[in-house]
Amino acid sequence: MSGSREAVLGRIRRALGERPAARTASYEAIPRAYLRSGTLEPQARIELFRSRIEHYDGGVHSCDRAAIAATIAGALAARGRRRLVVAAGVPAEWLPLRFDWIAEAGATPADLDGSDGAVTGCSVAIARTGTILLRHAGADGRRALTLIPDYHLCVVFAAQVVETVPEGLARAWAGSEPGSPLLLTTISGPSATADIEMTRIKGVHGPRTLDVVLVDG
């Protein structure tokens, strides 16, 4: 860390002082009139998440736990994808045969760029916004896996789907040390932007194609 930055942060810390209890009370006292918890039944919550992903031009493939590998195989075959990088925490039983799997641990930037895509899990998903949250640990994979390849297949379990953004963030931060930095990536459909002349272009900031394998139970 540079000397100037440390000096500025040091002044901020001294100005705040050692008053964690007072800061916590002040934070909790902030009025929050927005929706903080969901009201939908589980099946309605799942259907809302599905509809959001499909609205964003993402594919959704439903299955039970026993059919994860077969469902992944079908989704990849339909997209013509055969050589993929797989996140380190993805269980081997998720991965169907007859595909070329590249382990995340040994994958170089050239491997990511030259692959047909990436397969990951997620930490939590939000139904109201159709958003997938990655903490980049375990089955989430490192951040490069969902930035460089042109295709992303993400396995989402029904139990990971919450209704609202506050619920999603609370679950994503669960277990983290207070005040510790947390790298969090949010994905709402395939990467797209309309910043240039209001023309929507896919694949600018990440994969242009997203498939979700939605696992019941």
**Gyration radius, rounded:** 20 Å
Fourth-tier CATH superfamily name of the largest domain? NagB/RpiA/CoA transferase-like
Helix content: 25-40%
Outline type: globular
H/E order of the elements?
A: HHHEHEEHEEEEEHEEEE
Provide the domain count: 2
Give the oligomeric state of the chains in this entry, treating copies of one chain as homo and distinct chains as hetero.
Answer: single chain
> Can you identify the CATH class of the largest domain?
Alpha Beta
How many H/I helices? 6
Average residue pLDDT = 89
Distance between the termini: 45 Å
Second CATH tier, the architecture of the largest domain: 3-Layer(aba) Sandwich
What is the CATH T-level topology of the largest domain? Answer: Rossmann fold
> Based on DSSP secondary structure assignment, what is the total number of beta strands?
12
Word description of this protein:
Helix content is 29%, strand content 23%. The protein has 217 residues and is an alpha/beta fold. The model has no long low-confidence stretch (mean pLDDT 89). It has 6 helices and 12 strands. The longest helix has 14 residues, at 3-16. It starts with a helix and ends with a strand. It has 2 domains: 1-30, no CATH class; 40-216, 3-Layer(aba) Sandwich (Rossmann fold). Strands 1-12-7-4-2-3 form a 6-stranded parallel beta sheet, sandwiched between helices.
